[in-house]
Specification:
By secondary structure, the protein is of the alpha/beta class. The protein contains 12 helices and 18 strands.
Length: 341
């Protein structure tokens, strides 16, 4: 089969012919119909310090997918060949304390598709049965393949407790944009998004943002304080992964409000503890999705939210380099690779 492989300890990747994997006990072979490029894939492609410390070469990249069950391994009981599926990409052990207490998404022994094992930028992938999600047949493969990042948005917005509140989101990436739609669907009184790219800000408004702020030209903190009579937003989500954005988020959150830390900055971010204490701000770190409650909630929301505008490019797998290039240039939102064409 064809697969996009991180084959050398340097920037880039290669399209290679590799063996089709064989499912073992409790695993299924999936024929990939659509797979999407995410921020983690960008880190691996550019070969940054995190990737150097985590990725074992050679390895097939990618983790967000939709496809069809092709073959069952031994001891698989809930699936059949032909089932239309996606996958929770965080593979939990099911044995540790966190798994046993309902927190499998932060399992102590977590393995991630395309990071800790071969991924989805390929014609076929093997995935454990326990992390398979059966898709609504009406869901297009391109949209079905981005349910995993959509689940990130759902989980983060739910932890923010947005119903009836004024919500400020930092970050015009895919998950920040999706969070606008989720926040409105979950009853936010107002949703404001801070970003840097005008085209993305337009999309944020189309997805439900009431107002947008270009941080390259405007002061987010000053504007939000003006809009709230000096108080700030009750719920702030930092999804940009930038030190400046986190500092502004702490300034912009209302005293007694909630700040969701989701974005991953490249280094340590100094925290103004006195400001945090005297404002009595609640900071919550959020990662991934709750398994599988977030998927259930996301499926219901997809009946009300159209994510198709987020998908800006659909390319054959062989054109993966073009997909990475437009993402690095910030000319795309979500790029879908199609192994079948």
């Amino acid at each position: 089969m064809k697969a996009v492989v991180k084959a050398k300890p340097e920037p880039g990747a290669e399209l290679k012919d590799v063996d089709v994997p064989t499912p073992g006990p409790g695993e299924v072979l999936i024929r990939v119909a659509a797979t999407s490029i995410c921020g983690t894939d960008l880190h691996i492609y550019e070969w940054n310090d995190w990737a150097k410390s985590r990725i074992r070469i050679p390895q097939i990249m990618g983790h967000e997918l939709a496809g069809y069950v092709e073959e069952l391994g031994p001891e698989v009981h809930s699936l059949s060949p032909g089932d239309y599926v996606s996958a929770e990409t965080h593979i939990y052990c099911g044995r540790c304390f966190l798994c046993h207490t309902g927190k499998a998404h932060i399992c102590r022994n977590l393995a991630i598709l395309g990071v800790d094992r071969d991924g989805a930028f390929a014609e076929y992938i093997v995935v454990p049965e326990r992390v398979i999600w059966k898709n609504d047949p009406a869901l297009p493969p391109a949209v079905a393949s981005i349910q995993e990042p959509f689940g990130n948005a759902v989980h983060a917005v739910k932890r923010a407790g947005v119903a009836g509140k004024r919500v400020l989101i930092f970050g015009d990436g895919t998950i920040g944009l999706m969070s606008c739609a989720v926040a409105k669907a979950l009853g936010a009184d107002a949703v404001w998004l801070v970003g840097l790219v005008d085209r993305r800000l337009e999309l944020a408004r189309a997805l439900g943002a009431d107002r947008t702020i270009n941080a390259g030209r405007e002061d987010p903190v000053g504007l939000v304080r003006r809009w709230t009579g000096g108080l700030g937003a009750e719920a702030v989500l930092e999804m940009a992964g930038a030190e400046a954005a986190f500092r502004q988020a702490l300034e912009a959150v209302q005293p007694g409000g909630r700040l969701i830390a989701f974005g991953l900055p490249p280094g340590e971010v100094p925290l103004d503890i006195p400001k945090l204490v005297f404002k009595e701000v609640e900071i919550i770190g959020v990662v991934g999705r709750e398994i599988f409650s977030t998927w259930e909630e996301a499926a219901r929301l997809l009946a009300r939210i159209d994510l198709s505008p987020v998908v800006t490019h659909e390319l054959p797998l062989a054109e993966f380099r073009r997909g990475f290039e437009v993402l690095f240039r910030r000319e795309a939102i979500k790029v879908i690779l199609c192994p079948g064409g």
